[in-house]
Amino acid sequence: MDMTTYSGIRSGSYFKLLKSYYGNNLNSKAQSLVSSSVSTSKDSAKTLASIESESEDMVKSAQALYKNSRKDDTDATYKKVAAFVSDYNSLINAADDSETKQISRNLESMKSLTDINSKSLAKVGITVDSKSGKLSVDEDTFKKADSTRVDALFKGNGSYAYAVASKASMLEYAAKNEAEKTNTYGANGRYTQAYNSGYNYNMFL
Questions:
Q1: Where does residue 179 rank: exposed (0-12), middle (13-18), buried (19+ CB within 10 A)?
Q2: Up-side HSE of residue 172: CA atoms within 13 Å toward CB?
Q3: Cβ-contact 89, 154 below 8 angstroms
Q4: Is 191 helix (H, G, I), strand (E, B) or coil?
């Protein structure tokens, strides 16, 4: 068992043992003190889980583009780019309201990367909303665009798609790092979604 998991179990067990000793007689002040002792995250477990999930999806859709060595037809490429755009916007939705500085910095870095590439993206029918930073793609314009421009943006390790995947991976890491600060046990003594590695131990509780 690694030290992170051990520390998490100890922190969660503290609340579990208090509940066992005092039953349901813990007053609201005591409940608050126990809660604060095991969670220092500024974001909820739900928010962090959403950021993790959307980051993973973003990486996968980006990889489907930049790792693709074969020559797809226009329709197949458009579907992959449309999925990329959708996952990009979903990740922004998930991370926009985060109060964690590391997450906010990584999100702004991803948006800045897109802004830098906005002119190149526009030439293939992809526009960037100036307020939200979200993407939209016009199917007709994209399908009529020069394929070399599309490949330059979305194929290979030096592409825009590769860079977005890297930013999304950093967002996922930041969310997982922050999740370690959240409560590891629920009221029933079982691991919560905020502590995914603990799921393996639930069967023993």
A1: buried
A2: 15
A3: no
A4: strand
pLDDT digits (tens, 9 = 90+) for 117-154: 999 999 999 999 999 999 999 999 999 999 999 999 99
Reference 62, options 173, 156, 133; nearest CA is 156
Least Cα distance to 165 among 51, 85, 63 occurs for: 63
Phi-psi region of 22 (alpha: psi -120 to 50; beta: other; left: phi over 0): alpha
Domain boundaries, the chain: 3-39+183-204, 45-178
Strand partners, 11: none
The pLDDT value recorded for residue 205 is 46
SS3 159: coil
Q: Residue 50: what residue type?
A: S
Find out whether 173 and 115 touch, Cβ atoms under 8 Å: no
| E-assigned strand segments in 31-161 | 126-128, 135-137
pTM: 0.72
Beta strand residue intervals within 16-153, DSSP E: 126-128, 135-137
19-34 confidence digits (pLDDT tens):
555 555 545 544 554 4
Q: Which two tokens stand for residue 68?
A: 């693709």
